[in-house]
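To assess whether ligand presence alters the predicted conformation, the chain was also submitted together with pyridoxal-5'-phosphate. Input:
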Amino acid sequence: MKRFENKVWLASPTMHGEELKFMTEAYETNWMSTVGENINEVEKITCEKTGCGYAVALSAGTAALHMAVKLAGEEVYGQTVPGRGALGGHYVFCSDMTFDATVNPVVYEGGIPVLIDTEYDTWNMDPAALEQAFTKYPDVRIVVMAHLYGVPGKLDEIMDVCKRHGAILVEDAAESLGASYHGKQTGTFGTYSAISFNGNKIITGSAGGMLLTDSREAAEKVRKWSTQARENAPWYQHEELGYNYRMSNVIAGVVRGQYPYLEEHISRKKEIYERYQEGLKDLPVTMNPFDEKKSDPNFWLSCILIDADAMCRQVRSEHEALYQSEPGKSCPTEILETLAAYNAEGRPIWKPMHMQPIYRNNPFFTRDGSGRALTNAYISGGSVERDGKPADVGMDIFHRGLCLPSDIKMTVEQQEQIIEMVHGCFE
Ligand SMILES: *Cc1c(COP(=O)(O)O)cnc(C)c1O
């Protein structure tokens, strides 16, 4: 097989032309800053598409998550205290297997992330592990959950656990814009939620994000906080902590041009997912799963999980990976290196936060409640293992899973070649 002449990307921006029209409009009318028609329009479109009450356009999904966590903190613990943030040293339950932008905002606001293990059915926060965490820390009042790779998590169960414990849900829908659960869009289940328009997401602004909420008061607060928290006065009057987080009207032009293509992007991503599913069905692998009865994912990234008994030996240190090729078996490292050799981009599964040096000492809960029990386990390459096997679900999926090239512009022929490459790894 020949190396791809042009790189096949994991997920790159797919532009359509209208983005340039709206950017040019911003330029020609000189609305080049954080006020303008494009911003107003994308906020309106976001409310229409998702069904949320209010949307506030911000500079990034991370900024939106920061504002969401701050709103939740102030709601539960009162006003932000200088030096202590809005969370003031309180614990917050967070998804564990996710991008670190889900969890970091908790620390920005002075909170301590308590990491909740993953389930195998949707690769998201395990409601049973969340329940275990509430058993140990019944006073926690905020839960931050992500919908990984565009697949809605177990919202019925998570919402039920939150309700029983009087906790607020913050939803990280950065990867799942357009995905729905019981026909309702992700990003509308949390009291405060975030979406992202980062360059590789389902639609992009090159950058950008949005806070979604049904509370007008909360939306107005974020509008104010994100523009440096100016009071209504003839001079720069400040009574609250401010941020420079508002979306630019130029960026909003890109988002505005992309929105009409959201459904088309989702259809393309779904075709990619289904083509992999069909093309790899004879191999000892499964696709990233979802609940067919309850959810419609946006299929942002297509991932596979290699059967445990089809894994060749693979070890990962903090910065490197090694594997030993075996006939009939493979591993994420072998597949990722093979793809790279052919000029195609895959990616490991998000390395769980409890395995990251920055969060390694934070509390962590699995569904058997063992938390970070080191008894009967040993530290290996930065991860806790029991009897040489992954000690928890997140670690196991990280060990056996990977993201395949899922770029919308990939041709059918290119995807078929990728399927062939994966087959080659198992020979
Ligand atoms: C991309 C992403 C974010 C952050 O969004 P940015 O716009 O890049 O700041 C947050 N959480 C998850 C799960 C993401 O994938």
